[in-house]
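Weekly modeling sync, notes
Attendees: AB, CL, MP (scribe)

Item 1: holo prediction request
CL wants a bound-state model with magnesium ion before deciding which constructs to order. AB pointed out that an apo prediction alone won't tell us much about the pocket. Agreed to run with the ligand included and paste results into these notes for async review.

Input as submitted:
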Amino acid sequence: MDERLVDSSDRVVSLTETPDMVAHDQPGSRTETNGAPQERTLETRDLRVYYGDFLAIRDVDLDFLSRKITAIIGPSGCGKTTLLRSLNRMNELVPIARTEGHVMFQGQDIYAEHVDPVEVRRRIGMVFQKPNPFPKSIYENIAWGARIHGYKGELDALVEESLKRAALWEEVKDKLDQSGYSLSGGQQQRLCIARAIAVRPEVILMDEPCSALDPVATFRIEELMRELASIYTIVIVTHNMQQAARVSDFTAMMMLGEDKAGEMIEYDETNTIFTRPADPRTEDYVTGRFG
Amino acid sequence: MTTKALDGAPSLAKRPRLREAGIQGFLFLCGALSVLITVGILIVLGKESVSFFTTQQWENSNRPLAQELEAVGASIRVGEGGATLRAGDIIRVRDEIMEVVSVDGQTLTVVRGLQGTEPAAHETDLEIFRSNRVTLGEFLAGTEWNPQIGRFGILPLVTATLMTSTVAMMVALPLGLSIAIYLSEYASSRARSILKPILEILAGIPTVVLGYFALTFMTPLLRSVFGNDTVEIYNTGSAGIVIGILILPLVSSMSEDALSAVPRTLRAAAYALGATRLETAVRVVVPAAFSGLAAAFILATSRAIGETMIVAIAAGAGPALTANPFQAAETMTGHIVRISGGDLSYDSIDYNSLFAIGLVLFFMTLFLNIISQRVVRRFREVYE
Amino acid sequence: MNEINPFEGNTRRRRRQGIAWRFVFQASTIVGIIVLTALLYNVINESFGLAALELEIDPASLAVDGVALEELSQEQLAQIFQANVSAGLYRRYATEKPFTERTREEVYDLVQERVIRPQLVKTWTLFETLFERDAIEAELAEKYPGARLQFFSWLNPEFVQRPQSSDPLRAGVRTAILGSLWVIAITVIFAFPIATGAAIYLEEYAPETRLTRLIQTNINSLAGVPSIIYGILGLAIFVRFMQPITSGAVFGLVDDPTTANGRTIIAAGLTLGLLIMPIIIINAQEAIKAVPNSLRNASYGLGATQWETIWSHVLPNSIAGILTGTILAVSRAVGETAPLVVIGASTFITFDPDGPFSKFTTLPIQIFQWTSRPQAEFRNIAAAAIIALLLLLLALNAAAVLLRNRYSHRY
Ligand SMILES: Nc1ncnc2c1ncn2[C@@H]1O[C@H](COP(=O)(O)OP(=O)(O)OP(=O)(O)O)[C@@H](O)[C@H]1O
Ligand SMILES: [Mg+2]
């Protein structure tokens, strides 16, 4: 474990009350991957999540690099969703869930005492496994988030821009007042992505966003992710090895430990994970010899 | 387009959200109000019941002093007629309180100057007041309820309540269970979609209307079947039957829910053994749903006990200790309605007795409700 | 080879048994329908029918120059009135309001009431009217020779518009209907926001603590407390303890606060509010539970606060259920009688309620009072009032169904 990192995270935690003192650290600390300096938007340190007494994930230390797509893969039940949901404090909505450790977002610990989960979720958006548009019009689906965050600009323009960015505009521009449910599953999922980016987050978390979609819709969303990656930091959970290989820059492999607690066993560039993984369990998994 | 926050501030720090906190606080108060209501019920019923048992109510015995009374002496003569005075009664002449030790015709032997009062001389024709303090024992075990003469035994009211409730359950239980079995095990979904709304309509009929029905339909019906001499105009049987009709939808719909919750696999297992539909329904499904059915019956009993208007209209006025369902008898609820209608003066013994009866009623029904909730919860645990 | 079959061949018996019991189950269900039919039959049967009226004076004899009483002018009617009542009575009415100022209808009513003086001597049910006409006429001729037979629809437009009266021929339910509406309005204003708030708190905010469980158990138990207990609670708290407020005295709204004594519309409304609150809470909880969590997640995922989530997503998607539940609870309140008797609904008022601090009577109270009278003719108007009440309830339930259909969402 890199000592400098622990150091920096601790320091940041203690300094967040006086933002000017950490200003030199903004917008994120740096790490080296393959020699090139990279900004890290999100870092987890010793992240543990419990459901009641049950330890779901243990001591996850992961860096999510800015404007990169990081895939999280692993067998069912190993805690991928749990990890993802702890990155924007959505896990707190599960009454029995408890999180320990740190998640640093641009140098600030989002689990620090004074941090507001609402602020965190605004900056770290989420797309869910099943498309879940609001039972409102397509327009309202997009505009609502911006409105609650006090968006001052032109809403129509924002809606159009978000839908365009989500590659949905052409399909829905004539029926913005129809219910979000009138769309197909794949369109609904893109609507959810458009909704997420309309509040201009810095990170988008996606939990198996294509699991309910057919290959064509999946392809469109993968395309979309690649485009979005020029602006956003994306974390995606997927069961689809090809998808991870196709879209992601980095891949984290998770696995159930001895005591049924999920842990991260390997993290590297996607290329490396799929061609010469360090851990034999990863190799078994990505080549389909496992579960 | 920029990835910067909308407001440009990178801080994640909490902001005071007064509105959120205010709303949450208000909503909590709304929830807590229910506890307040319960506490209110308990306090109100409890407090007034306590004064029912503790205040000395002075009632004119209508038997004035027949003879002048010296400041000393333990024997007094009283007038004829009026209320019966017994040994143990506390009486008051002007300010002096005495206890009757023995009665011999018009002569009372008394202990004088009780409860901090001084024995004094009293002239003839002064009125004698009798204390009406009710003891808990008398209240719970007494067999006569007659406030005019200070008899406050709740038993006649309780037995009448039990009588109407028993009759009601005898109607609602078999009928309700049969309906539930029919709807859940036999009826086609089309039949169900017609029958269930009809039962719901029955459930929505105001009780005062059912009371009218009891008096103008059920009672004449009973009288034409059993004879006008056997069946009184006001009787607990007719009220009980109609209460049974009132709770029938409750029993049948709760029972049907319980039966439908029994997993399909259990029925399939029975059929696979060659059981008939009846055997499957009665020997497999009903026992499996037993606690759900029990909860329904308990809850229905509680509704029957608390039912008011039907008995107020059809069961008769005037407490009576009788085991005959064709005779009139006043239930607890019926009595409350009768004495509270009109101008009931506060702090009279009648007013206080209302709360004592209410308390008994409250605990009876609360007890049944809680048991029913328990049973339902256990039932849920089995299948979910 | 030939093994003995250890099972007796009882299939036929079992099948017969099955059929018999199936019949029993089916019959029980039909009993439910029969009861409902009997109830409606009974009410309708009493609401219409012949009645024997004894008149002091035959209206035909009051005709002037061949013009029937109904056609006469105001002055002619006033003359008839003066000619047929005692001088003292005439003076009394004249000082109350001079006859020249009375409308023709008022004078006509007075003639009816004071001169013709119809008295109901006997009423018959609709069934008897339709199928036993001969027996009725025989009885009429024998027992009430002077009486005339007239068909009555006890439920009629005038019945709904007239105030209460001790004479069944002139009694109406206007006072009672207005009273019911007033009471229900207060009930809803009081109970709906609080109950919905409590449901939101329990479903969306309440942590899994002992206190929460206590509140929940409490609400479930309160829903089962007999309504009459709420009446007793209302009597002690709203009528007696809060008398200065519920009588309107503190607001200086009522000239003579002793008249209503706290037994007012507002006390009744609050009492019924407490009564239906647990029912609304439980129904609203069910409705809120039915909102899928994915919606809440979507909202939180966008950085919405809890209240924003509830206000924009949970409530709009459960409001139909909440309103339906509320209407059903309100239907219950509309039909409630016992608690209002206990808190002291007025037995006899003839003036319209004019505000929350008025004395009141309600439709069910009215039905109860008429039903409790020994005279048969009050049964008829009670039946008419029951039909009015049932129609009111039907309207409410229809509204509930419409709401349910209109706002039902798919997710
Ligand atoms: N709300 C919850 N309450 C209790 N335990 C939970 C909850 N959510 C998840 N778990 C447990 O945590 C562990 C990890 O669950 P998680 O959903 O994170 O797995 P996953 O890797 O996303 O699986 P999948 O690939 O099937 O989606 C599992 O053992 C699961 O049972
Ligand atoms: Mg998952």
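Recorded for review: Chain A is about 35% helix and 25% strand.
Action items: CL to compare against the apo run; MP to circulate these notes.
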